[in-house]
């Protein structure tokens, strides 16, 4: 499990030139980092100085913390799913029968492979919502951390969108391919919103 690896160990595997892990798993790790940063920033927005918002801050910290293992689980899911896709492409294709069987296995694997990035996009939307709420009353000292979280969530959404695009290009079932348009549009909106809120926070930091 990726959650049990060291950061260095995962990055070494990522860089190894093998089919897995790949961009989808890396995007999920970005989401986990984003959620962790939101939780940290919320935990720094507690105590007497922030008494009026402490209940909300603790709720945000808890919800964001819950997204960490969910994101890491999606990294594992993505790695397993793409491993199945890669294995399917290695099936024999000499005869027409083999090619037909291979094509069916590939399509089945691709249908499963789109699940992790679709779920990841949903998680990045949750991170954005928590970051947006927290930014309204957060400890000024952690504005940069919230901005960093939003940039990580933005990267995660972009990675998930790219993964979906790659899968969609190889899916021959038009109906299934069509179901990916909505998640891709959601990812685009999340990317734009994360960037906009991050810029607002950077402006606040510059203005003191």
Automatic annotation (TrEMBL):
Q: Which residues span the membrane?
A: none
* Lineage top rank: taxon: Bacteria
Organism source for this protein?
Arthrobacter mobilis
* Signal peptide residues on this chain, from the entry's feature table: none
Domain Cyclodeaminase/cyclohydrolase, which positions? 6-180
This chain belongs to the protein called Cyclodeaminase/cyclohydrolase family protein
Q: What is the lineage of its organism?
A: Bacteria, Bacillati, Actinomycetota, Actinomycetes, Micrococcales
A single MF term (Gene Ontology) = hydrolase activity
Q: Which UniProt keywords apply?
A: Hydrolase
Q: Return the Gene3D superfamilies for the record.
A: Formiminotetrahydrofolate cyclodeaminase monomer, up-and-down helical bundle
């Amino acid at each position: 499990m990726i959650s049990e690896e060291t950061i260095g160990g995962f990055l070494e595997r990522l860089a190894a030139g093998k089919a897995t892990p790949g961009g989808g798993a890396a995007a999920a790790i970005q989401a986990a980092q984003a959620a962790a940063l939101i939780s940290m920033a919320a935990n720094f927005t507690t105590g007497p100085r922030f008494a009026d918002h402490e209940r909300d801050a603790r709720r945000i910290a808890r919800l964001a913390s819950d997204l960490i293992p969910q994101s890491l689980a999606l990294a594992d899911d993505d790695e397993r799913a793409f491993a199945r896709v890669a294995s399917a492409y290695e099936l024999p294709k000499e005869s027409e029968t083999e090619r037909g069987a291979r094509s069916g296995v590939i399509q089945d694997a691709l249908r499963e492979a789109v699940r992790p990035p679709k779920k990841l996009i949903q998680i990045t939307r949750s991170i954005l919502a928590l970051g947006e709420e927290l930014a309204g009353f957060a400890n000024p000292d952690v504005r940069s951390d919230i901005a960093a979280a939003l940039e990580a969530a933005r990267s995660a959404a972009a990675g998930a969108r790219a993964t979906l695009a790659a899968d969609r290009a190889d899916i021959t079932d038009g109906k299934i391919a069509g179901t990916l348009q909505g998640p891709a549009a959601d990812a685009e909106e999340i990317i734009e919103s994360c960037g906009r809120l991050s810029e607002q926070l950077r402006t606040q930091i510059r203005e003191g």
